[in-house]
Amino acid sequence: MTTQWVYSFGAKESNARPDTQGPVKNLLGGKGANLAEMASLGLPVPPGFTITTEVCTAFYKNAEQYPAELRAQVDAALKKIENAVGVKFGDAKNPLLLSVRSGARVSMPGMMDTVLNLGLNDETVVGLATSSGDERFAWDSYRRFVQMYGDVVLGVSHHDFEDILDQQKRDDNVFNDTDLSADAWKNVVAEYKALVKRDTGADFPMNPVDQLWGAVGAVFKSWMTARAVSYRAIHDIPEDWGTAVNVQAMVFGNMGDDCATGVAFTRDPSTGENYFYGEYLINAQGEDVVAGIRTPQSLTILGREKEGSNLPSMEETMPGVFKQLDDVRQTLEKHYRDMQDIEFTVQSGTLYMLQTRTGKRTSAAALKIAVDMVGEGLITKEEALLRLEPQALDQLLHPTLDPAAHKTILTRGLPASPGAASGIVVFSADDAEAMAKDGKKVILCRRETSPEDIHGMHAAAGILTTRGGMTSHAAVVARGMGRACVAGAGALQIDYETATMRVGDRVVKAGDVITIDGGAGEVMLGAVPTVQPELSGDFATVMQWADDVRRMGVRANAETPLDAKTARGFGAEGIGLCRTEHMFFDPTRIQHVREMIFANNAPARRDALAKLLPAQRGDFAELFEIMRGLPVTIRLLDPPLHEFLPQSDADIAEFARIANIGADQVRMRLRELHETNPMLGHRGCRLGMTYPEIYEMQARAIFEAAIKVDVTPEIMIPLIATHRELAVLKKLVDETAVAVFAETGKTVSYTVGTMIELPRAALTADEIAPDAAFFSFGTNDLTQTTLGLSRDDSALFMNDYLRQGVFARDPFATLDIDGVGQLVRIAVEKGRKVRPDIKLGICGEHGGDPASIAFCESVGLHYVSCSPYRVPIARLAAAQATIRENAGKKPDAVKRAA
Ligand code: PEP
Ligand code: MG
After folding, report:
1. Angstrom distances, CA of residue 881 to CA of 541, 721, 847, 867
2. Is 893 a residue whose pLDDT tops 50?
3. Domains of the chain (ranges plus CATH)?
């Protein structure tokens, strides 16, 4: 049996398969499948045929040779078009003209796009002039063809064609293309052909069949252009998908004033409003609408009024055709059950559909369209949830740049924490705080941030760093606070001495204003206007639907009252990680912490800790109050001790004064505590093992606070490698509980659990689980230690790794399922085996990443925990994960609306 390489559509004898979605879409490409589908719906589609994506794949497999049967199949399909239209390709008297377009499965920039009016030559142009009775139209079409074919197939510069056209207009003293006469176009064509000859060394092809194969070849060749190849690499599009080629009878929007061409969306793609949104041009061909040579007019009266335009709408100029087009809009939406992006042409009062595809839209529009379509009975709630892109909700949660605003980009970094913020450039946390106190908005610019900068980060509207990745201190803290952050902007050089930063020869000084877009990773000069989010209405509706279906809980990582309140506002069902060290950095407490570190015996340490106790107790009480009735997981102290010590000379002097010791002594202690590799050093439970007083004080503060509020604290021990560490520290916590309960005469229920952040802990989870009421996967450290990859330094080379396909995504942003995920799975299985009711959650940054959340669903975690601003994203992603998991178990579980 010979392979069918060519599928016809739109003609009576078309042989496209009836179901043109799914596998057939892969064969015909998006454009071809939708043309065939529109034709089978009875919509007016000019007849044509699609050369399948398999031809593209075969072409490249076979040293750029076409399959042997292709020519005969193309000839036969061309005959069908000729029969349907009643004119012949290459006929000197009344020629059939064709359009040739590429069409991969997904639309792809970098590919050859379109050649129109193919089949014209010096002879057929005369036939077209006679048959149409319009010489000017014929030569206008011919010059368009020579230019498009010359540009996209023969590679002659578009600008050189434009120069010739401009010269002609100057010679004829006219402004618009439409004012040029037939003779002028004849002259332009002659010059265009001379240009092609000069540039390519060959005559412009006159044989229509050669033209057709030239254009088909150009489409297939464009699959391998550098731009297309790099687009595929970025978007994970396999090379063997190939592109299809669509060949279709031309219809003309440029044959007079009863002709037009246009593009439209079935709903407004920026707001989602349900009205027909689009533009058209009378007496024009498709490329004129996008080229911006003439101002397109709105399709509808409503659209015209919204734009404040007084150019007449199509609804007014061509009411009959408009009504037909509006019916097509309804038919397409009902059929595809989604907003469509369409192209059409009107030839002598007759409507033709040239394309339909799912329309791209803003996040706000996506939300409105999904909710409206459920209301209209077009889709189910589950489908609505699955259609929304969780990450795109980010756009709705933070102020975003006004899309209409002009921007001058200074440099780019990682999109570390979404939102857009403008402010005055400051280079230190203290300056940030001081200026914010004066009511100024500032952007804190640092090479990197450390816990000492927290107050400045809090005071700043946005944070910009030149080093560090997606889980660097700046990124994690900014996300937690909901501050916009661009991290690791490597091209930027900060000089603290001169209080300047530069990219190349562009210098920005302290006091200048910049804008950062943490969703896009862009840094811009000056203040770019922003727009505020709207979280009620459709947003709230979708969140409610998500909550109705999801299985996993969603908690927040939060420690400050502000973050906790924000998290609750976003629907968090508790706190999954309270990083207590962040509570120690408060300027009023840090001195007590330092005294504690300087103490050289346990009693002295206890004295210092006693001063911290009331503050810790107060913090916890406030947190418990905000989260009343919900679970709160408090992690005992984690970072290395030297992070708490003063670093700058001024800080050292100040601490020496307060502690009444010499600055030299402070420096000596700093040297003692300094670690070569602090991430693998004296941190996490290792602090509790060596200074049990610290954990004891923290446990006491938790119990004393919990007694007053209705809450079940979950006390979490970090960085466990062995079950012995947990056993020792759990005993300490339990003994503290007994003591507090005895002192107060009151009890409170609590649990003790552990983070799983080290491979050894995951592998020995069955030994650890007997002492752990819960496991919370700390996948930031688990990724760092499994891959042996520093979470603070990997950004330096991550892009090279991504480019070379070592990782599909940054493993600190999306869980490395094959490696780190395997450890999570092992720990879940081993933990459950010995403790079936063990509570399981995740609190690494991955807890807010949709792909990682899907993995968490698949291993059956009970909840995910993420930064407050990611809570809505996680709620939607968790709902999608549940729907997909269920659909995987029961193929028809995702119901389609009637
Ligand atoms: C983790 O390691 O994933 C975690 C949540 O802890 P931290 O980021 O505070 O190290
Ligand atoms: Mg950790």
Report:
1. 19, 31, 13, 19
2. no
3. 6-249 (3.30.1490.20), 260-361 (3.30.470.20), 398-531 (3.50.30.10), 550-640+675-888 (3.20.20.60)
